[in-house]
């Protein structure tokens, strides 16, 4: 789950995952250069099928770094991975090593990317997350189509022990207050993981959960953790779009319950500051709570 030798794998990062820092949508070459020169620890980027800008004939569709609906980029997945691999191998300070989170918006893009990932990156040495929304999720979300979970897991097994960042499609915004990850949605996630034997192969799993929704879902997130904790290393990654309505105190309760050692917080700076995760008193109380609660499930 954690980058070997890098700052993400340091003792302080392991005990407080909320300190891990992120760069988002690193989908072009110049932005990647800036991020590699920064202290950012995790690089998140989107992979779609499309064309390099210099491919004027548009005859060579390949996995590129782009978020739909974009179908052009100046950066292919292969080049993206090779640049980060070269940087990580040459890093003379362990804290400079970057983890990567590859966000796939379609099953076609993921399946076409497997061979490239296997040959262009060292997943055994450097932290590699494979992200996709594999199930429909809260608040009547019908606009976003989830990635087919069976095909996703079939392809993911070819990547060995990469961390699987698997979630639900969601709908939320500034005016939303009601919504949660339901019993049925949590059951569906547990069942699809077991049906595809991911509990048996033991990949680390992080569940990307939307801040405003997971704040209302503490009980079901405990149940999700407890169902899989004996077979997979389970963490949560809280994310939020700018302007999302979030009950900060409820979200703090969720983080308090899961623990700083099992909760990444990838949210806008203003929300992160409101959570006051640097408070020593808060950090010291986040121990053993999750494990202790599993006796009820």
Give the structural class: alpha/beta
Shape: globular
Q: Major sheet, described briefly? A: 10 strands, mixed
Q: Please trace the helix and strand order, writing H or E for each element.
A: HEHEEEHEHEHEHHEHHEHEHHH
What is the average per-residue confidence, as pLDDT, rounded to a whole number? 89
> What gap, in angstroms, lies between the N and C termini?
25 Å
According to DSSP, the number of beta strands is 10
Strand content: 15-25%
| Uncertain runs | 1-7
Name the quaternary structure: single chain
Helix count, per DSSP? 13
Question: Could you tell me the radius of gyration in angstroms?
Answer: 19 Å
Helix content: 25-40%
Organism: Anopheles atroparvus (European mosquito)
Pfam family, one: Menorin_N
Protein name: Menorin-like domain-containing protein
Family: Belongs to the menorin family.
Task: Please provide a written account of the structure.
The chain has helices at 11-15, 29-36, 77-90, 107-120, 149-156, 183-195, 198-201, 211-214, 218-228, 248-258, 269-275, 280-284, 289-293; strands at residues 22-23, 42-52, 62-65, 72-73, 99-104, 128-135, 163-168, 205-210, 234-239, 263-266. The chain has 13 helices and 10 strands. Strands 1, 2, 3, 4, 5, 6, 7, 8, 9 and 10 form a 10-stranded mixed sheet that branches. Helix 2 links the parallel strand 1 and strand 2. The two termini are 25 Å apart. It is globular. The longest helix has 14 residues, at 77-90. By secondary structure, it is α/β, with parallel strands linked by helices. The protein is 37% helix and 19% strand.
């Amino acid at each position: 789950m954690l980058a070997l030798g890098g700052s993400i794998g340091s003792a302080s990062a392991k005990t407080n995952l909320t300190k891990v820092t992120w760069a988002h949508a690193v989908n072009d070459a110049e932005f990647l250069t800036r991020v590699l020169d920064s202290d950012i620890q995790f690089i998140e980027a989107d992979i779609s099928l499309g064309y390099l800008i210099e491919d004027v004939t548009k005859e060579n569709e390949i996995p590129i770094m782009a978020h739909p609906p974009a179908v052009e980029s100046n950066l292919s997945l292969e080049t993206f991975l090779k640049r980060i691999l070269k940087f990580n191998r040459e890093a003379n300070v362990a804290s400079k090593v970057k983890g990567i989170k590859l966000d796939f918006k379609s099953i076609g893009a993921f399946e076409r990317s497997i061979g490239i990932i296997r040959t262009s990156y060292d997943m055994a040495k450097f932290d590699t997350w494979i992200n996709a929304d594999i199930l429909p999720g809260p608040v009547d979300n019908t606009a976003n189509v989830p990635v087919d979970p069976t095909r996703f897991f079939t392809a993911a097994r070819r990547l060995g022990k990469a961390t699987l960042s698997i979630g639900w499609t969601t709908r939320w915004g500034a005016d939303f207050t009601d919504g949660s990850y339901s019993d049925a949605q949590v059951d569906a996630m547990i069942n699809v993981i077991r049906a595809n034997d991911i509990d048996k192969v033991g990949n680390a799993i992080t569940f990307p959960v939307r801040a405003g929704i997971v704040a209302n879902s503490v009980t079901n997130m405990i149940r999700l953790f407890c169902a899989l904790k004996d077979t997979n290393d389970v963490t949560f990654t809280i994310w939020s779009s700018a302007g999302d309505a979030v009950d900060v105190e409820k979200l703090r309760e969720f983080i308090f319950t899961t623990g700083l050692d099992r909760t990444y917080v990838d949210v806008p700076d203003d929300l992160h500051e409101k959570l006051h995760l640097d408070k020593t008193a808060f950090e010291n109380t986040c121990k053993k709570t999750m494990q202790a609660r599993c006796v009820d499930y």
